[in-house]
Specification:
The chain is built from twelve helices and nine strands. With 316 residues, the protein is an alpha/beta fold. The protein has one domain (49-315): HUPs (Rossmann fold, 3-Layer(aba) Sandwich), CATH 3.40.50.620. Helix 2 (66-79) packs parallel to helix 3 (100-114), helix 2 crosses helix 9 (223-232) and helix 7 crosses helix 11 (267-285). The protein binds iron/sulfur cluster. Iron/sulfur cluster binds at residues 94, 148-149, 152-153, 242, 244-245.
């Protein structure tokens, strides 16, 4: 973390001592100006990508981790300026013993402190299995075709969409940071998944009436700054890692990007902006999604059976 205690004065207020050096911009900031810079960045991103309408009902996906809790605090603050919009927090309980229970309690406590309605949806109630039970059924890790995160990712995406519909949300705001976005883009390139590279953007398109649009107000906030925001604001969040975290490719890319950023400050922003510039051209060359109703659950699917039902079928 580029936090230091140099005697430099904050370059913004020019009064208080700087506590943070932002390598990619050269700014030295005091705590107050740092916090304001993050909030201004998020407001700027929301405006730039036209993420919300003045009367949107916004569901914030709150896992209980630093990024989602920081996003909840910032959106709760910015929403006060928009009396016709409303905010609701949604948490997906995957059913990970000893991990998700703590996160749920932290998410609920933050929502209560901010006066934000909190809605929880669980894998158990939606699918009949917790993630722990699913992983137990899929056999030893070495023999499994899919990683725990692959199961979790598909089922959580569906659960989040269902939760957003349950609370009548117009948009779902997720706390994907600049780091997450750049890692995901590079993973898609490394896997040759150009269709996904074209689709994963700061605001998803309206592709089906049953799919709630997703927005990513933190997509231009580096993860280290989202973490620092939570510390400076004294926000309580869960910092225990998920016991199933297993995305080897993401871990390799994260390490590579962090090394690059260390040597050449601003690398992550450069990659993010490059992808943003390339994306419109990609959208024109990838096949458009054709949706039909899943024969099993009736949710939008690209084939006769949606990915969620395919996975659940394999478990039985
Ligand atoms: Fe799910 Fe993987 Fe994230 Fe754990 S690390 S919550 S298994 S996606």
């Amino acid at each position: 973390m580029s936090v230091n205690s140099t005697a430099a004065v904050c370059v913004v207020c020019k009064r208080r001592d700087a506590f943070f050096f932002r390598p990619y911009s050269g700014e030295k900031l005091c705590k107050k100006c740092f916090v304001e810079s993050i909030e201004a960045k998020v407001r700027g991103t929301i405006g730039k990508y036209n993420m919300f309408s003045f009367d949107d009902r916004i569901a914030v996906a709150v896992s209980g981790g630093k990024d989602s809790i920081s996003l909840l605090h910032i959106l709760a603050k910015t929403e006060q300026a928009h009396p016709k919009s409303s905010l609701v927090a949604v948490t997906v309980d995957e059913g990970i013993k000893g991990y998700r229970d703590e996160a749920l309690e932290i998410a609920a406590a933050n929502c209560k402190a901010l006066g934000v309605e909190h809605h929880v949806v669980s894998f158990k109630e939606l699918y009949g299995f917790t993630l722990d039970e699913i992983i137990a059924r899929t056999g030893p890790k070495s023999e499994r075709e899919l990683t725990s995160c692959a199961y979790c990712g598909v089922l959580r995406r569906r659960a989040l969409n269902v939760a957003a519909r349950d609370v009548c949300a117009d948009k779902v705001a997720t706390a994907h940071t600049l780091d997450d976005e750049v890692q995901t883009s590079l993973m898609n390139i490394f896997r040759g998944d150009i269709a996904r590279l074209a689709k994963e953007k700061p605001v998803t398109d309206k592709v089906h009436p049953r799919l709630v649009r997703k927005v990513k107000p933190f997509c231009e906030v580096p993860e280290r700054e989202s973490t620092l925001y939570a510390y400076v604001k004294n926000i309580r969040f869960q910092d225990t890692p998920c016991p199933y975290a297993s995305e080897a490719l993401r871990n390799d890319i994260r390490a590579m990007l962090n090394r690059m950023e260390q040597k050449r400050a601003g690398t992550k922003f450069t990659v993010f902006k490059s992808i943003e510039r390339i994306r419109p051209a990609l959208v024109n060359v990838v096949e458009k999604d054709e949706f039909q109703e899943c024969v099993e659950c009736g949710e939008p699917a690209s084939g006769s059976l949606c990915r969620t039902c395919e996975m659940l079928r394999d478990l039985c």
